[in-house]
Amino acid sequence: MHGIAEDAIDTPCRERRFRSLLQFSLWGNKMDLSLNPTLNSDLDAMEKMQSNSEAHLDELKSHILSDHSDALWAKVEALRTTQPPTARIDIVLDNAGYELFTDLCLAHWLINNGYAAQVLSRFRFCEMGAIFASFMFLYVS
Length: 141
Known about the structure:
Elements: H1 11-27, H2 37-40, H3 43-51, H4 54-60, H5 69-79, E1 88-93, H6 98-112, E2 118-123
Parallel strand pairs: 1-2
Helix pairs in contact: 1-6
């Protein structure tokens, strides 16, 4: 991810960056404590998981059951036509740590490149107070 705005970069390049950040955000959830190498001692698997290379993201695409990233990109790209940006994008959070970091990278990119005026990170709480966002029909990273 670059620290500069991408005004001079063409739309296909911006789309590739968006899709990469979206995938990083999605697969950031693999950093769950159940995958901690101290718990399962599989250091090679942990290093591959942490590498987060784009090639590794391509390998993981086959595990996505329902991919609506095309429709999401169309909505996000349409937001860029309003300048200055006025849109608010909400991201539902269900974890913290590395998962939160990848969500914040996506939020930064959306704001820095004129797609949104603000990005809100929201936790979903159930009646007992625990966080359960994955059952919702929203974009959940």
